[in-house]
Amino acid sequence: MATIKDVAQHAKVSVATVSRVLNNDPKVRAETKEVVERAIDELGYSPNLLGRNLRRSSTHNILVLLPTISNQFYSAIIKGIREEATLKGYNVMIGITDLDVNIEMNHIQLLENKLVDGIIFFTPQIAKSTLTRLGKVYPIVQCSEYVEGAKLSLVSIDNKQAAFDATKYLIELGHKHIGLITSKKVYTSSKLREEGFKEALTQYQLPVNEELIYYTDYTPQCGTEAAKALLTRKTPPTAIFTISDSLAIGVIRGLKECGKKVGVDIDVIGFDNTFISKFYEPTITTISQPRLEMGKKAAKLLLNKIQNIDSANETIFLPHELMIRQSTK
Amino acid sequence: MATIKDVAQHAKVSVATVSRVLNNDPKVRAETKEVVERAIDELGYSPNLLGRNLRRSSTHNILVLLPTISNQFYSAIIKGIREEATLKGYNVMIGITDLDVNIEMNHIQLLENKLVDGIIFFTPQIAKSTLTRLGKVYPIVQCSEYVEGAKLSLVSIDNKQAAFDATKYLIELGHKHIGLITSKKVYTSSKLREEGFKEALTQYQLPVNEELIYYTDYTPQCGTEAAKALLTRKTPPTAIFTISDSLAIGVIRGLKECGKKVGVDIDVIGFDNTFISKFYEPTITTISQPRLEMGKKAAKLLLNKIQNIDSANETIFLPHELMIRQSTK
DNA sequence: TTGTAAGCGTTATCAG
DNA sequence: CTGATAACGCTTACAA
Predict the structure, then answer these.
(1) How many domains does chain B have?
(2) Averages of pLDDT over each 10 residues, chain B, 329 residues
(3) Would you say residue B53 lies in a domain?
(4) Residues A296, A267 within the same domain
(5) Which CDD domains is this protein grouped with (chains A, B) (predicted)?
(6) Residue B304 CA to nucleotide C3 C1', Å?
């Protein structure tokens, strides 16, 4: 494998000159540049980034930490991140945490070890204080799901307002008994969505009936169970707001199994506008997040931090949108 | 940020000794080791891997190249890869190619640049000859979708046999007119599946009716169109085999829209056993691939290649399984 | 068992 | 405009 030294010898110049050509230093004579470039071609030389990285003490790699890869939701966000990053010459890598703090810490290690220049975190499990401390030393930003109160740059949507809007829409449809199916793990987003849900009820003078709130996991299976359970309440809901599309799918299935016609007998709203919500039967009313934009913004915030770790933390909430489909009416 | 030098000074030993402790060299005296470890703790030292990597000329990073992140199919495979890799002290990173040759080449660059030690390729778009040439120099293995004839290690399923089995099952159910919805891009897998499909028909003395073969893309939308188109044929199919679950979803929807009852009037088989196939309505008969195992095997093959780039290429086909559900009967 | 010092492949400073 | 050379942080002969 050819090194910069080989190129230098081949081109009869110093390694410094080769390095300059490699880095587009304007003060190389055009002819010299040509000679060097020919040598590079002839030797099939490709710079060893291990050397460069050590010298520059940076890799131009950024890491995106996802809780799982099996969630359609992230794909557009990643695309946004990549677009922005590539523009600035950064490479994007993805790591999967399985929501395991240890795996998260392993990846933080990559930052300490200088193998990546920054991290965009989705759904961090690390404690707030740790996160804040790390954020002072390393470029880290949070995206979408986040730890409330951690002092880091952050881009997300206004989850409370989004839930408020969804609930308000159901209320305006005439519903008086609205169920909520949410996560039993206390994610910031689910907490905020529950708040928004309750606030809408209160604001429209409807009672908050805890019997109609069901805590469970993010899977369709859980959605099915939850729906069936809610139907057994003294006053069963005539509409259900779920905090994810995957839950909504299960909910609809459960309702169907109980002989309910979704969108007619009972309304359902999901969250995230993942592709399946457009394709299930019925199609599912849901909240859309500006995912591409979110990715781009997150990358921008991170690049800022990489440039200047002491730059002020920013909190950005992007606008959401209620997508009305067949599952409500 | 503390370096190995700082630790050495702090512990009053040489950097060599610190390095030995870091690498668990058995010939350091226990007391010395302790002193060094205390120094490491006190300084909060964490080795800069850029230095180590340069010196060792390896990173212990492997890269998994996916065509897209929005396919549920990959998640279990990645898990398998990670399990195996972690066991051997390797880190797994994921890159997304969007099926773009340039992006693929960018990532190959990481290999030339020594930033990753090897690559596991899903759905490479690079030409066979290029791939073969690269495979001689760098550790690269193919997984699941692959370039036929490229001389690289490879783990997948026997796609032809799988399609044969699915078709045979439909034939044994009594179907005489079976449709095939497959990809119009010629992936190896779709080519092989088409072959298996035709071979089953032939072997059971059924005519191969090209009118019942529909070429399209991998999306549900395309599946819907395809299904509707097939229903307009002179002799419409009484069963449809699709080469992916996402297509199958669309197909089922299209059939429903035409008033057909899937699993009763007409049967549908998908491919990949992704989570939605278990959760759609009806649940979808499909071919299951041993994804976890596939990931583990792929990682093993890659690690072999990393150890010895000249080790013989292996081709491994793992067993598939027909999962019978409501969409056929 | 430990220390000295060379070297991995770059970039950047400084002198010319 | 170009060259010599130190330095980045680490590992590993080789010597002691």
Answers:
(1) 3
(2) 95 97 95 97 95 94 89 89 93 88 87 91 94 94 96 97 98 98 92 98 97 94 96 97 96 95 97 91 96 98 94 97 96
(3) no
(4) no
(5) HTH_LacI, PBP1_LacI-like
(6) 37
